[in-house]
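Morning. Coffee machine broken again, so started the prediction first thing and wrote up yesterday's gels while waiting. Chain of 345 residues, entered below exactly as on the submission form.
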Amino acid sequence: MNLDDFVDLIERPDGTIRRDAEERRERLVVPSGSLGRLDELGEWLSAAQGGVPARPIEQPRVVLFAGDHGVAELGVSARPAGSAHRLVRAVLDGESPVAILARRFGTPVRVVDMALDCDPAELPEEVTRHRVRRGSGRIDVEDALTAEEAEQAFRTGMAIADEEADAGTDLLVLGDLSVGGTTAAGVLIAALCGTDASVVTGRGGGRIDDLAWMRKCAAIRDALRRARPVLGDQLELLATCGGADLAAITGFLLQSAVRRTPVILDGVVSAAAALVAQRVAFRAPDWWLAGQTSGEPAQAKALDRIALNPLLDHGVTVGEGAGALLALPMVQAAAALSAELPERA
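Came back before lunch.
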């Protein structure tokens, strides 16, 4: 596939409409600037939606891409290697933070298995039907995926974005359910930002101890040696040191931008995929919001490179889309205020 096509397919949100939204904001009964970032969000939504005032967010949806990473065998995660299916089951059973929040907010959740290391029969077919392989390769010593698997995962992400756009989803809340995913994300971000392993190695969602942090740092260092020679080819980079979930998220983000569907990013995994996607199409980040800061140094580095300022900083490190979902009410509030505040007489 030719990733260069995305450069032509992705347009920025309408700049003229954004200026119209800014002018309308000056005429509202509430003084300009008194609503802080809600003003900015309302104007951004107007441009993304193509109309002034912004329309209320009526059909948001959480989409979680799931996968296991072979690098977790090295003890780089607080969770056992190959256990991401337990995270998926907790979401499906309504017992995880993101499931509880989504239920409270009335937002449907979709889980997409890209590379879980479990028998597909353990989960519903609607979850497992897109699986590319059982677990991604151990990126410190081998490729995460074959070239064919990377393209398949990338195209799956694109297809999911199309399905959501066709279904009328007007805001996507993105997350991942992975074990070892923050290690792969750290490699991608370090490679694309030209930094070394220690700068991007964080504690992960489970807040690993010092020994595990050192193992994680060493794994990222070794994987970086394999990543640097393929920096010029984004699909090859994802195959070498990413994973099926990261490849799918990258395709999902790019196709969502093509379809003019805004996305709220969650933690370091979605930030890493966003950084890869930005390398493919420089206008794509204009369609994304950073939901929250996770405390992962790699996430901060990626968002700085993409020029996205997180909406929230609540110290939420659990991942799984929970931080992005917490930002949803703020975006909905911005849309409602933009739509319903009257202008001065």
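The mean pLDDT is 95. Going to sketch it on the whiteboard this afternoon.
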